[in-house]
Amino acid sequence: MHSLDTGTQPALIGTRQAAEILGVPRTTLASRLAAGTIAPAIKLPGRTGAFLFDRAYIEQIAADERDATQRRSALAAAPSAPE
């Protein structure tokens, strides 16, 4: 699970809000959780306990994904070298 060593409590958000920040459906977020590509800060007790996420962690992932998308778009738009 994701953890911070800042000495302060992270702002925790639920699955719905994390999915909104990432711009994906909740089902996609659930798939990413299952695949281990996103880690919750906390899972509440019980078989159906909710996942809570560190808001800063989710915002950083969203920013990284936007940057990667912009880089791919720029590369696709760049003229190719003559052969």
Give a verbal description of the structure.
With 83 residues, the protein is mostly helical. It has a domain at 17-67. Helix content is 49%, strand content 10%. It contains 3 helices and 3 strands; from the N terminus they run βααββα. A 3-stranded antiparallel β-sheet has the order 1-3-2. A hairpin with a 7-residue loop joins strand 2 and strand 3.
Describe the biggest sheet?
A: 3 strands, antiparallel
Tell how many strands the DSSP assignment holds: 3
Mean pLDDT: 87
Shape category: elongated
Helix content: 40-55%
- Termini distance? 49 Å
| Weakly predicted, low-confidence segments | none
**What is the number of helices?**
3
The chain-level structural class is mainly alpha
Strand arrangement within the widest β-sheet reads 1-3-2
Give a topology summary.
Layout: E1 12-13, H1 15-22, H2 26-35, E2 42-43, E3 51-54, H3 55-77
Antiparallel strand pairs: 1-3, 2-3
Helix pairs in contact: 1-2
